[in-house]
Amino acid sequence: MSSIPRPTTARSTVAMRLLAAALLAAVVLSGVSLTACGGQSSTTVTSATADTLSAPGRTVSFTTEDGVTLGGHVFGSGHAGVVLAHMYPADQTSWYATAERLAQEGYLVMTFDFRGYGESGGEKQIDLTDRDVSAAVTAIRGEGAAEVVLAGASMGGTASLIAGDRAQTLSSIRLAGIATLSAPVEFRGLSAGDAVPRVMVPLLFIAAENDEGAAGARELERLSSGKGDLEIVPGSDHGTDLLTGDQGARVYGLLQSFIKDSLAP
Predict the structure, then answer these.
(1) What are the pLDDT digits (tens) for 167-222?
(2) Distance between CA atoms of 18 and 187, rounded to whole angstroms?
(3) Among 3.40.50.1820, 3.30.40.230, 3.90.79.10, 3.30.450.20, what is the CATH number of 42-262?
């Protein structure tokens, strides 16, 4: 019986690997080309390449009123927006898990790094971080949000209250509420003492009883003249650690309910 010729397995395998490598290179090059040809804008979505495939959400960058470029991530879609501002000395990664959960619930969520932190440019200037929150509000409007809740941890909460005071006058996007986790009234030159009495939207102040943030939350609630809800939970966790500690489920529930009620049609 004559033998049937068989294909050369080694040669076929090499050819398939070469084809796969060529296709992968074409995809990466096309991503680079798209980035280089994109037009300029205040908010830039970074094309997916080998360096950004593992990044959460969509990578964006935007510029503050004083010219500092900030890096952020956008999760989800829709017209109901949430901006999450990080605590000191953390960065936006401390909000990623919460951002993903809120996005799954139907919200358009943005995290970002304050100037001098993480993916953002500039120097660390805590007394100017409210400008960074204001820039994030403009940026999330560009992503499609028609209304927004600001939520800030510690320093980020103080900055959000100051920026929120200014955002009330915006016609392009409606400020729906501001929530803080362990926020102080004042921190290293950043003070919300004058802004809080002027804020007319719903407010939520959360802190742990045995953390220094409890005193700040109580003072902020007093300054709000009854417009803010005060929630003091057991423990000593601070800022976004409240969401991962023993009271994590309760704190997330408080934040979730506040956002839902504030953004309800």
Answers:
(1) 999 999 999 999 999 999 999 999 999 999 999 999 999 999 999 999 999 999 99
(2) 58
(3) 3.40.50.1820
